[in-house]
Amino acid sequence: MFYATSAGVLALATAQFFTGVSANLKTCTNNNTLSCHSSSKAPTCCYNYPGGALLQTQFWDTDPSTGPSDSWTIHGLWPDNCDGTYESSCDSSRAYTNITEILKEQGRTSLLSYMDQYWVDIDGDNESFWAHEWGKHGTCINTIDPSCYTNYSAQEEVGDFFQKVVDLFKSLDTYKALSAAGITPSSSKTYTLSAIEAALSKVHDGSQAYLGCDNGSLNQVWYFFNVRGNAIDGQYDASAPLTKSSCPSSGIKYAPKSN
Fold first, then answer.
1. What is the pTM (predicted TM-score) of this model?
2. What GO biological process terms are annotated to this protein in UniProt (predicted)?
3. Which domain holds residue 103?
């Protein structure tokens, strides 16, 4: 399956946490149904379906490198059908290509500045990258459909989506988690899959993350979640990956960024 911060004590993530801004989404009261765990299989504004698993995905680009040398970068937030399959490009009428303009109109300049540093395209075209992630994955998250909003404003869900992805990314500092376990970028050292998985499980409440490798070099991490409520202000529960990591069991390279 293919889906195109300083020294100190590493804070561990909890199994259940809330992140993001308070959106104008319809209230989900007394909603205890965890996505991917209902037999009714009916989407509502409080139940993510069919994309019930949500993946916060990250890149480690080294040649050319992207983002700071001491941080991974954002890939996106992807809905998965709870079985390793996924839908894509679900609403062409909302496949906006002017993400920067939308965020500026919503007054989200701080968010935009952060994205320009940590959500970066390997070819330097951030705008197209953001539009791709929104159009392919964001439009498939049913709980942020415009019909799920109270007093909906045009493109409101776009800003909420990008803010949510950034907030999740900030709570999952892959670089620090690996460094705390002695796993640092090196042109000569190699690491085992089990050691990397163990290190990242500490920021994912004991759940493993999917690890992606290219020619034996670590370059992707996907953190899987199930959600109670909507995707913006719902409760995210860490879950096991739905697909097997593509890295070898040993000899994994973690190359330094070229800058």
1. 0.91
2. RNA catabolic process
3. 16-22+37-253
